Every structure is written in structure tokens, then in C-alpha cells.
């Protein structure tokens, strides 16, 4: 349960500093995770980004104060992190469907987002298909790109564009032609986090045993134990579902923790939207 406890500690930190200008680095530090790993885990378990959670909670608190005090709207705007009353009113309306003045006159209902508590499902009603593998170090060859790692940047959208780009320029076909290792298919992985630049390094590649081909980079995956999970169905549906089960069900039910090696998503089917598409998620464990 250490992962759940560390995430809950980070949530408590957010709640205690809702009115402060906190960053994803500050929050992730409370959970002893990198900003990228914390953000990814938080989204997997809650279906909301850290930035969106903070925005919802601040506007919930602002609405409560609006109803129960005579504080001016302009003062509330500055207090809850908005530079102008207009930007505050716009955000307030998006969440509550009312303007601040309408809310103060009690002209409709407000939408409250309560303090978050991370819970896990230990019922295990549906089996999770996985296998444990111990492997020596192996090599991935492919292409890489750095992405910002902050609470406002949509990494998922940018990574999807990266995949589309290399699909159009023929890179994916070249990688599939090189694949000669134990892992069959294309690999997507975040392999590094740069704390100074607050960036992640995302790779698209394949396992390959020879010298690095021209036009590609090489990454050495260290020797670790892997829990390999199977997912069948459209990638955009089954991969997020499987990740959620891994963190909310499998980790709390087993004596393993995520190790320092990168997790791998292995795409084994030519059509990722197919109902029979096969994907494996390789999670390094200790």
C-alpha cells in the first residue's frame, strides 16, 4: 500500500497549499516520485490531471467563500490564483454554469469537487493475465523526442502526434523490419526524466541485437524483473484500462513495487484500433 499512501500524502500537500503557487515538482516530491511518474500515476488512478484537480478544488473553495462571505469578486479572483476578475469569472462559469454574481444571488446550483481520496480495488473479481520474466540487459533502437513535463502540458496528445509523424515518414516500417529480439512489435517508452529542463524523453523503437542502424539511436535496458500484462482490444481503450488495473489492483495485491527501469508498451498488431489488437505492458518490478 506504500504507493497509495505516498499519493495520498501528495494530495494532502495539494490541499494544504491550494492558495499557493505550487508546481508539479513540489507535489511529486511529497510522493518520492519524479514529476512525470507522479503525473502519469495520478492520471491513471483519477482520470484527471494534477492541474485540473487543483483548478476544480480552487473553484469549489471559491464558490463556497462566495456564498458564505461578503468578499469582493476581485479579491476572490486574486486569492484563488487568477490575474483578473474576467479570467476568474470565465473559469468559474466553465465549472459551475453560473457567473460569480449569479452564484452570490443563489440563482442556480453549484458543482462541487470534493477532496480526493485514493482508493484501490482489492476484490480481484476479474483476472489479470500477466507473467513474470527475468531478462538480461537488452537493446532498443529507435527515435526519441523530449516533451515538457508540467501540469499544463498535454503529453498524451503530443506523443500521439509523434507516433503519427513517424508512421507517415516510413520510420515505423523500418523499425518493424529491424525487430529481431524477444520482444515482438513496436515499443513506446519514457526512458528518462531531466530535472533541470523538467522534460521527459520518449522513445519509439524495437528490440534489436546488432549495431545501431543509421538514422536511429540506441537505448540499453538494464537487467531487471518484469511483470508483463496482456491487453486485447483497441489500444486507446484497453491500454489505459490495463494501466489503471495495474496500479489500483495488482500493485496493492502483490509484494512488488515499480523499479527504476522504464515501463514499456509493446504494440504487436498492425491495426491498433482493431478489437483483436494485442498489446503488452512491461512493468519493471522489485
TrEMBL record:
InterPro entries per UniProt: AraC_E-bd, GyrI-like, Homeodomain-like_sf, HTH_AraC, MarA-like, Reg_factor_effector_dom_sf
GO molecular function, one term: DNA-binding transcription factor activity
Domain HTH araC/xylS-type: 8-106
The UniProt record lists the keyword Acyltransferase: no
Entry keywords, A to Z: DNA-binding, Transcription, Transcription regulation
Xref: Pfam families: GyrI-like, HTH_18
Protein known as: AraC family transcriptional regulator
Organism: Novibacillus thermophilus
Lineage: Bacteria, Bacillati, Bacillota, Bacilli, Bacillales
